Amino acid sequence: MSAGAAKKAAKAAKVAAPKEGAILDRGYTPYAGAYTEQASRWKVIASRTLRMSARQWWAILLLIATVGPLLVAGIRMWIYSKIGAVAPPGADIPSPDSMVMLPGGTMTLAFLIALFAGAGQVADDTRAGAFQFYFARPVTRDQYLVGKVVPVLTLTLFIALAPALLLSLLRLALLPTATEALKKLPLVGATLVTGTIEALVLAVPAVAISSLSRKRSLVQGGYAVLYLLPWIMGGIFAKVTRSAWPDLFSVPHHIENIARFLYRQPWGPEDRALPVWISAAFVALLVAGSLALLRKRLSAVEVVAS
Amino acid sequence: MSGAFIECEHAAKWYGQIIAVNDVSLSVPGGVTGLLGPNGAGKSTLLKMMVGQLRPSKGVVKVLGEPVWGSRTLMRRIGYCPEHEGTYEDLTGLEMVTALTELHGFGHDEARARAEKMLGVVDLKDAMHRRLGEYSKGMRQRAKLAQAMAHDPEVVFLDEPLTGCDPLARVRILEVIERLAAEGRCVVVSSHVLHEIETMTSQILLIHKGQLRAEGDVHQIRALIDAHPHKVRVECDKPRALAEKLVTQDHVVGVTVDGDAIVVDTRAPDRLYPAIPEAAKTAGVYIRALTSPDDNMAAVFKYLTETA
């Protein structure tokens, strides 16, 4: 059959096709009830994602592991507060307040949960073709974005904030009078702000990087390199050069720098730190840049078969 | 809306130099319509444009009279069952269908009730509390079908819905598709397996190399393909005698004797069918069966795609 004949046949067949649909029994009743608010779609995505993430072994393990640093810091705080009360003036005893700030190990745990929970958020959906389900519904790219960021943020926030918050409350409880406790109330505010910044700066970039690849392992590797390499290299070069600038791209350095500023815990005489406004600007740029990247990647999504 | 549920007006989609769908204009009425084409023909691309997941590079795709790209309200009236998995293995069947129904704008309780009902329709009631990771391929297909129907759409798109299904699942899915069409909905089923489509409908859209090659009823399309003589197989007790009588007809281009049967190639089947009993009567031949082996989807598909 020639190409011309095939075209002719196809054209003729189109002419023969019925113009109107067959009359069929409309035996179903379309839904006439109310719909939920359009803006609330992200909550559905977020709650399912959070529920799924919280069932994973790594999430359970990391959440349980948070108790460790909390206990250690709590005991040390109790000891320092008791010793501090009876020690002679000028004795070199660490301030119990310092135990509230980034309790040892929780930043590592927060980093790990952002790594595990964040890396798969968009990558897994891209790989599995889940966009086909989401975007066959009245769900916008922005609602999907929020629904994917919030669960990672929640898990990271829990680890970054909960132990520190409990410790700050314990610190207030250990003070002998209500007046002294009131004076230390800014500790709670500092804890809330530091924990939120820490969670944002760890969680949002993890989800953003997740939109760059469909391989979870690749995303995890990229995220780990982004955080660990500048931190390790920055630490080495800062010592060698005796300057704080090699730490410019070190996220842990910036988090600690901001935390020290908020908790009024100065760096040691041998430590080198960047001005706190640089840390604040870096953190803001990193979070905003990550959101912009994520938004750009998702707004460009056309759902193509995997 | 002019009676058609779906309309494409010069729709095209290209990726750089590659043209996936080329200037397709069509209309799809109610009932079941098969979207046919070989692998890589552009079926999935066309289907995704109809679902509103791909923006046409040119032209317009309308569903229920409205351009589908970017219309969120229209999404509530469309159900889509993709070919690829895309399901979360840690969720149960009920959780997945409920969540996806909630995304259509139903409250949790309403969405759950609808999910339970639809999972029952696709025979997954007993398995709905099991994780999707434990489902067989056929069960996953049925779960995907349930999520496509739970919000009660008017137009349903099913991309290769029978892939990997066991016979029982196939029967169940075919029943569901039949029911959807009987209720007055428009169901578009994409497949490259002809007999699957043939069991559902004779209404087809045939895509090849990104172009629409045919649209309409498969028998009408076959009748219009004049370049290929129609084959009529006659089983009888004296095949040679019948062949002698029929070969003299001017519209008959060939007769092949095949054991106890003859296969007649004709350019005018309308003239051949009355001529066969006459010839049999004259030659004293007893006819046992009369069939048309190429008046089916496979033949139409072959004829319209073999020019590639």
Explain this structure to me?
Chain A has 306 residues and is an all-alpha fold. Chain A has one domain. Helices cover 69% and strands 0% of the residues of chain A. Chain A has 13 helices and no strands. Chain A has helices spanning 3-16, 41-54, 57-65, 67-86, 106-119, 121-128, 131-134, 141-174, 178-183, 186-210, 216-241, 251-263, 276-299. In chain A, helix 3 (57-65) runs antiparallel to helix 5 and helix 10 crosses helix 11 (216-241). Residues 9-23 of chain A have low confidence and may be disordered. Chain B folds into 2 domains: 6-217, P-loop containing nucleotide triphosphate hydrolases (Rossmann fold, 3-Layer(aba) Sandwich); 225-305, 2-Layer Sandwich (Alpha-Beta Plaits), CATH 3.30.70. Chain B is 36% helix and 29% strand. Chain B has helices at 43-51, 72-75, 93-102, 108-121, 137-149, 167-182, 194-200, 218-224, 239-246, 269-283, 297-305; strands at residues 6-15, 18-28, 31-36, 58-63, 66-67, 78-81, 155-159, 186-191, 203-208, 211-217, 230-236, 252-258, 261-266, 287-291. In chain B, the strands form 3 sheets. In chain B, strands 6-7-8-3-9-10 form a 6-stranded mixed beta sheet, with helices on both faces. Chain B has a 4-stranded antiparallel beta sheet with strand order 2-1-4-5, covered by helices on one side. In chain B, a hairpin with a 2-residue loop joins strand 9 (203-208) and strand 10. The longest helix of chain B is centred in the middle third of the chain and has 16 residues, at 167-182. Chain B starts with 5 loop residues before the first strand and ends with a helix. Chains A and B meet through helix 1, helix 2 and helix 7 of A and helix 1, helix 2, strand 6, helix 3 and strand 10 of B.
In short:
Chain A is an all-alpha fold. Chain A contains 13 helices and no strands. In chain A, helix 2 crosses helix 8, helix 5 packs antiparallel against helix 8 and helix 5 packs parallel to helix 10.
